[in-house]
C-alpha cells in the first residue's frame, strides 16, 4: 500500500502544467532580454537553410540536353504543366477548357526568344496566376521541363496532343541560359 501511495504522489507531482504556462516569446514580441529589445534573433551571417545549398547548386547551371533529359522533361511536363499549358504547349490544357485563364502559348515569338533561365525561374517562382512549383519540382526536373519546352518549340508546328509524333519530339532544344 505504501508503494502505491508513493507512486500516486509521483504521478500527481508530474501533472503540474509548468511547461504549458511558462513565459514564452513569439516572433516580433518585445523582450528586455536582448539589447535591441526584440525577442526574435537575426540569422547568423552565412546561414543556409537545410537543403538550400544543394538546390542552389543544381539550379545554377543547366545540364547538357540529352534524349534522357528531354524524356524526363516530357514526363514531368505531362504531370505538372499540361493541365494548363496543354500537351502541345499552346495554352489549351484541360484547366483552360473548363474556364480558367489561358496561359501564353510556348509557340509565341516572345517565348521562343526567351532564355532557358526564364522558364526555369517561372517554374520556380510562378508568374501571373501560375503559382510556384519550387516545392513540388526539384531543380533537375525543372531543367528537364525547360529542355522539353525547348524541344516542343522546335518541333513540327502541326503536332497535336494526340499525334504519335509528340512522343518523338526532337532533342536539339536550345540550352541557353
Helix tally equals 8
Could you give the count of β-strands? Answer: 0
Gap between N and C termini: 79 Å
The biggest beta sheet reads: none
Order of helices and strands: HHHHHHHH
User: What is the CATH first-level class name of the domain at 52-168?
Assistant: Mainly Alpha
Which structural class is indicated by helix and strand composition?
mainly alpha
Q: What overall form do the CA principal axes indicate?
A: elongated
The percent range for strand residues is under 5%
Mean of all residue-level pLDDT scores: 84
Unreliable spans are: 171-177
Helicity level, as a percent range? 40-55%
CATH domain fold name of the domain at 52-168: Cytochrome Bc1 Complex, Chain D, domain 2
Quaternary state of this entry equals single chain
CATH architecture designation of the domain at 52-168:
Orthogonal Bundle
- Cα-atom Rg, whole angstroms? 27 Å
According to CATH, the homologous superfamily of the domain at 52-168 is Cytochrome c-like domain
Amino acid at each position: 500500500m505504501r508503494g502505491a501511495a508513493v507512486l500516486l504522489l509521483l504521478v500527481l507531482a508530474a501533472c503540474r502544467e509548468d511547461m504549458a504556462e511558462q513565459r514564452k516569446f513569439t516572433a516580433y514580441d518585445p523582450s528586455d532580454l536582448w539589447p535591441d529589445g526584440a525577442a526574435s534573433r537575426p540569422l547568423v551571417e552565412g546561414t543556409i537553410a537545410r537543403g538550400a545549398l544543394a538546390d542552389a547548386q543544381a539550379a545554377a547551371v543547366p545540364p547538357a540536353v540529352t534524349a534522357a533529359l528531354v524524356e524526363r522533361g516530357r514526363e514531368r511536363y505531362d504531370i505538372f504543366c499540361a493541365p494548363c499549358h496543354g500537351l502541345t504547349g499552346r495554352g489549351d490544357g484541360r484547366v483552360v477548357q473548363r474556364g480558367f485563364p489561358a496561359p501564353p502559348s510556348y509557340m509565341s515569338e516572345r517565348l521562343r526568344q526567351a532564355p532557358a533561365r526564364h522558364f526555369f525561374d517561372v517554374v520556380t517562382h510562378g508568374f501571373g496566376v501560375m503559382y510556384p512549383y519550387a516545392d513540388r519540382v526539384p531543380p533537375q526536373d525543372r531543367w528537364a521541363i525547360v529542355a522539353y519546352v525547348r524541344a516542343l518549340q522546335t518541333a513540327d508546328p502541326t503536332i497535336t496532343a494526340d499525334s504519335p509524333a509528340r512522343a518523338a519530339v526532337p532533342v536539339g532544344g536550345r540550352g541557353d541560359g
